[in-house]
Amino acid sequence: MLSSHTSSLFWFRMDMMKDFIKKGHSVIALGPEPESIWSQKFNEYGIRYKQIYVERNGINPFNDLRTYRELKKFMKKEKPDKVFTYQAKTVVYGSLAAKANGISEVYPLIAGLGSVFRGEGFKNRLVRAIMMTEYRLACHASKNVFFQNNDDKNEFIHNGLVKEDKTVIINGSGVNLEKFKSEPLPDHPTFLFIGRLIRDKGVMEYLEACKQIKLIDPKVRCLLVGPYDSNPSALLPEELQPFIEQGIIEYFGEQSDVRPYLRQCSTYVLPSYHEGTPKTVLEAMAVGRSIITTNAPGCRETVTDGYNGFLVPIKNINCLVEKMKILIVNKVLNEEMAQRNLEIVKEKYDVKLINQSIMRTMEIL
């Protein structure tokens, strides 16, 4: 299993890897972070961890060539029967390295297309053209390609990157309902955002909306959890600091366990510009919280507007504020939405159901 973000493998794919092992398979996890930090953590679950070189956000072709060569050498040595890979760099170079070694059972997951596919400007168009060519080669080298929403799947098909009969839709990464359980709502309205502090996640819209909400009702709490990032659209510490100093935001940094913060909130807010299917939204639903998110690819799959939460237009701070105000004053509506999410997540997003779908496709029986 390959990723360009090791902690994502550990926190988001562990249930899947454990299910692979239960079926009698050996699992090797590959990521860019040091073995000295991660090997023991993976070993505790019977998983080997191997560090590979991946420059997650870079566009240097020599660095990418190094990634491809390392993966090709690794696969030649290990001869894996099946390869599951996600996130752009490892999808592309993992799939091509597998093909170079005659491995046909490659299963990439396209978990959101990111700003490159939907951004503007000459540089963005150039990078998009390169990525589309790489994705086309990767999909050609794959047996099946997983998508988490129809928007992304149709984008790939429309641009000739993948044949429709290769595509498989899954309902996100799922959520572990034994770990994320229903919790009572707090007495006072509290909003929460969890995610990397990058603009594409809608963090600036969240901050500005919280600023307006605090002017209306200073007792409302607005929580923020997540790390700073190396992404070009990342929020800088000096940009966040004024919101902290003015008491608009309670910032808790990166957390390995988000459940204590989900317990504190009454509504989870994710004004993202695009997602695969946002795992933090599924976790909030499993705890029994209403959702405010955007009418954007991946996000819109999780919410029926007005039923279990609200959908707002991308980058529309005023609309976001209006929906937050509704849930502040209408406690009964918030409770009804929260209860509906508990039912939805059990029927649709249980990680056991998602993993069964993946394993059927991969013929892990």
From TrEMBL:
Taxonomic classification: Bacteria, Bacillati, Bacillota, Bacilli, Lactobacillales
The Glycosyl transferase family domain sits at: 179-340
Residue ranges occupied by any Glycosyltransferase subfamily 4-like N-terminal domain in the UniProt entry: 4-149
List UniProt keywords, sorted A-Z: Transferase
> Does the record carry Transferase as a key word?
yes
Gene Ontology MF: a single term = glycosyltransferase activity
Q: InterPro entries this protein is in?
A: Glyco_trans_1, Glyco_trans_4-like_N, Glycosyltransferase_grp1
On whether Transport is a keyword of this UniProt record, the answer is no
Name of the protein described by the UniProt record: Glycosyltransferase
